[in-house]
Amino acid sequence: MKKLKEKASSIFKTKFGKGKALHFLGHDLSEYPASNSEYIKVNKAKWEEYYQCLRKQNESLGSSLSATPEAVLGFEGHNIKLMCKMCISPQERHKTDAILWEWAPQEAKKFQPIDLTEHVVISPEDKTLHLYNLQMDQTGQYICRLGESLTAPYFLTVLNVSDTELNEVHTPEAPLGPYPAVSDMIEEYGLILDTEWSAWSVCSNCGKIGRKHKLGYCTIFSKEYREFISAASNSTVDEAEFTSRVTSVDLELFTVFKYGIPCKSHILPTAIKNLPQVKSRNNEVMVGYCKVKKMVSC
């Protein structure tokens, strides 16, 4: 029996990775903690993390009970990461190796497996998809899959930097502008124009003053759709003109994309892209000064 246990343990360590505390049948010991207080704490934390994930997922469904897709923007040559927002119980964590990423190019009708390369990497820990050195032909739809379970899709648009106007702005604390564009309201359509900012880049110098930057993406959000319908009925905009420019179908898209749609996204309806306020608002790059303490790794 002892040899059988050792053999089973050896097989499962090979399968699930070295260094894990495993039951002789291959289970994580924290999943069946018995009276071990340390394993009980670990087990409780794992399940609480899982339930918290489910709560967030349930809250995001809203009254329509549908998962919220995300429209994201990236620049050619830059990097982006897409998180696999799938809730996996501690009992099923050994299945994470079965999680797959699939995508459909812009004009494609079917999803296909993503080919992993030096520029397309899936994190083994949380299955985040990392896309390095983005190319324009990577524009499309991305989903994370585990068996028949799917996450809400990402709609990625990759832009050529040279073809995109970027306004350079300074931080609000800077003594001189130009400063970031403020939030703007397109009253007649119930749309809000705002800027979504990326994280700061690393400092350009180490041990002395350098520069850092972050990108600001023009993004369009909507008020509650029902509020807009009510306001539109009292609008002074000519109804025929309203219908020819932006339709209710165009606006309903924002009830699905609750996190907004970038102004330059390939999924944004042309009628909305052509609104004067949208056409005149560029993406921005914020530049600031920084200083990082000199370290051995600098």
TrEMBL record:
Belongs to the FAM187 family. It comes from Callosobruchus maculatus. Keywords: Glycoprotein, Membrane, Signal, Transmembrane, Transmembrane helix. It is a single-pass type I membrane protein. One of its GO terms (cellular component) is membrane. This is Ig-like domain-containing protein. SUPFAM superfamilies: Immunoglobulin. InterPro entries: FAM187A/B, Ig-like_dom_sf, Ig-like_fold. It comes from the Eukaryota. It is found in: Membrane.
